[in-house]
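Hey, I'm writing a tutorial for new members on how sequence and structure tokens pair up, and I'd like a real worked example in the thread rather than a made-up one. If someone can provide the structure for the chain below, I'll link this post from the tutorial.
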Amino acid sequence: MHISSLLERHAHRCPALLVDGVEPRIEADRLTAYKLVSASEDFFQGHFPGVPLMPGVLMLEALTQAATLLVLSRPGASPLATASLRGVDDVKFRRHVVPGDRLQLEVRVGRERGPITRVHAAANVAGTVVVEAVLVMAVRQDRARIHPTAVVHPTAVIGSTCVVGPQAVIGPHVVLGRNVMVGASAVIEGDTTVGEDTQIFPFASIGLPPQDLKYRGERTRLVIGVGNVFRESVTIHRGTVGGGGETRIGDRNLFMAYAHVAHDCHVGSDTIFGPGATLGGHVAVEDFAQISAYSGVHQFCRVGRYAFIGGYSVVTKDALPFAKTVGNRARVYGLNTVGLVRRGFPPEVVTRLKRAYRYLLTSRLTPSRALEVIDGEAGLACAEVQYLVEFIRSSSRGVTLRRPNLRAGDTDE
């Protein structure tokens, strides 16, 4: 438990920190903390000189800080929740607290109603109760936290529980959903919508103008779904009028450091982009695809569902779904069997896809004839094989069907 970070969300500042530590915790609804009362405390200098006593209001403040630790660290509590004291009931002061005492602070959750939690609190010294009270705590979980050095335009919409880090810049047309994390020095500009639970790491550049020489500053969009992760220095550009005016990112995608998505790209959901992976303009990447480190996909290409693009590859035609596409220029290394098994594909589906790829890659049939054979073979009938056939037939740039030239040491599954 990070005491200082939790208490930072409570209305206190040093030198008013009155909790020195927390005892090992067993129950989620109870907490024991302590305060070591030292003769060097500032308040002893003027509170009954000659007979120094800890003021009763500071005993209650110590209990309040312990109660803050309790309510903010309970299971299910938002990391952005804040707590404040709304009232104190049934206060009883039992004895004095003097320098050298170890004040043990015991708090437990009582009745709860909406954002209001009643906390039963007691402090004791050497087993003797010195003060007890019922603290009325208000817990709020919907406040955005924006660093004082961040530059956020007044018309930007910042969702509840968002965190905006130091030196971050958020432009006038940006909309952030709930619980979006924006790292230090990240920039979000343009007509950009970011879905909830998305993490944008430091120095990422989201929604800036495209690097298309035909772009003349017209209003275009970037739409990002929920649960995405954009690591350090990722760049995502908004669309162009000629390309439909919109770049779109789905849900739960991971973009590792320095990945780049150019204008008018459409990325599905649950994809993974390795470090430096790059999409040219107008690229479509379908669900569950993986583009490995420093690979580039040419503009207007498609990357099929569950496709695997190996590291440092150059893709200039549509990359087949379910397959391993690797190299410069990229060639097909067969079905991505390991990846499909990890994704939970049934063995019978993997077997049918393997047979379909044998017709496409190792038979002496032309591509069009291979598709006819796959279509006509009842033993290959399944949704995945049908999608593969339709993907190839609908390609406008053509698909990569070239096998690699195997050399010593190469493997081909």
